[in-house]
Amino acid sequence: MNIDELLKAAIEKGSSDLHLKVGVYPMVRINGGLAPLDKFPKVNQEESVALAFSVMNPSQKEKFKERFELDLAYSAAGLGRGRGLRAMTRSPWTSNSHFPGRCFGISSTTRS
Question: What is the Cα–Cα distance from 40 to 42, expressed in whole angstroms?
Answer without folding.
Answer: 7
